[in-house]
What does this fold into?
Amino acid sequence: MRRRSEVLTEVRQAPALRERKTATRVLVEHHEVLRGLMRRTQETPRSQPGRRRTLADELFDELWMHERIEEKIFYPATRDVTPGIAAAWSEHRQLSDQLAALVRADPRTERFDRELSVMHDALESHAHLDEEQEMFPEVERFMDEERLVDLGDRLQARLDTLRSSRRVRAVLRLQRALLRLTAGRARR
Amino acid sequence: MAQRTLDRLLNAIEGDGRLDRPGHRLEQGFAFTENLLGITRGPARGFLHGVWLGHPLHPLLTDVPIGSWTMALVLDLTGQKRAARAAVGIGLAGALAAAVTGLHDWQYTHDNARRVGLVHGTLNALAIGMYGWSWWQRGRGHHLRGRLAALLGYPVIAVSGFLGGALTYRHQIGVDQADRQLEPRRFTPVLAERDLTEKSPRRVRAGDVEVVLVRADGRIHALENACPHLGAPLSQGWLRDGSLTCPWHGSQFELHSGESLNGPAVAPAPCLQTRVRDGWIEVRRAPAVATAPPGSTLVHQQEVQP
It folds into this structure.
């Protein structure tokens, strides 16, 4: 339990600064948070399954929230600016599927490492190859700076609300528990 | 006139952005269920898409309710009550199977097709409700009510069937969208061999054709870059258990043959032959052999010795 809160604080400290940012910047910074979690999970050896599991849980939650703020706020606002929104939605689905596979894998096994490496590739494909290289530059070019900053505020506010919401945390914990429970049954 | 009315109906559905939110909600719920049941990573996924069949399974199953319920209409006219109830029941079973496969296919669609699919599915759910009620009432001896429900349900599946047809013929959902070009017929250099790193897909051009190169297990594989499902760039995909995964919908393609392993792509990604000459990777389309079944020639000739 203590280990978990320690991980949480490190992630939450990152967006403490209160300056106004553009939507794309908020999202890129959150991509960095996700990359950091990914890196730390990959650096944790198989001999520390508890910490691996905690980090995977944290990744599950953060990525879930990332998808929600993009889908609720960013994609609807940029739908007419860039043609890649439908594909981005689909990529979220791939990430959700891969997250489920990661959470269902036992952190002591080699399967977990494999799922983690696929998770890494899938995340880079969506965050880097698609959004950071193609979609975001297009949005920045064709969208009003002021509008982008407003969007950024909304994204950040929504992210903060989601992070501090007890209901969201409970739902996510339930989702993870259900995924693990059914995975155990499938193995038996 | 009728044509214009139908066209207007389709345009109205396709342009209605309000359908997106409920659509995505439904998909997320469905995705979570599939992950819980282990369908996403299991053999059931490809089975439901119809990979084993070579084309989508869903349209095949829809014939069962349409046929049975048409028969029920005829049996109602000739007054054969028990047979009519059986026909309604068989139709129901087929409709439920079609619903599962249809939802499974629908979750991997985009934009306009997605909206049409949502309305198609909603109408079908309504028809299932009506025919279910009809079946139940007939069982309790209320044949008149049963007939009325069937009579009202029939136009619903007719409209819904029309929308399903639009998904295939207008939006090409479930249709093999691979480009059937013959080029490049000769070996064309596309990339210096040292520039291709292990297990990292790379997009290259061979003339007008976009190709994805993958180096895995000491071999260089080449597939057409556009996914045969909805044209996603496979070069942005990743390797999972030794096969190339589509970044949009997770179809997995066998590297050496391009065969789809799990769907939603039910058709193979076209394969090209590769070889290395003077430090350059060269690709070409396998020469067509008119007397061999298509595909088999591609598979057997992919590996070319330099």
Summary: Strands of chain B lie at 188-192, 202-206, 209-216, 219-224, 238-240, 243-245, 252-254, 271-277, 280-284. Confidence is low (pLDDT under 50) at residues 297-301 of chain B.
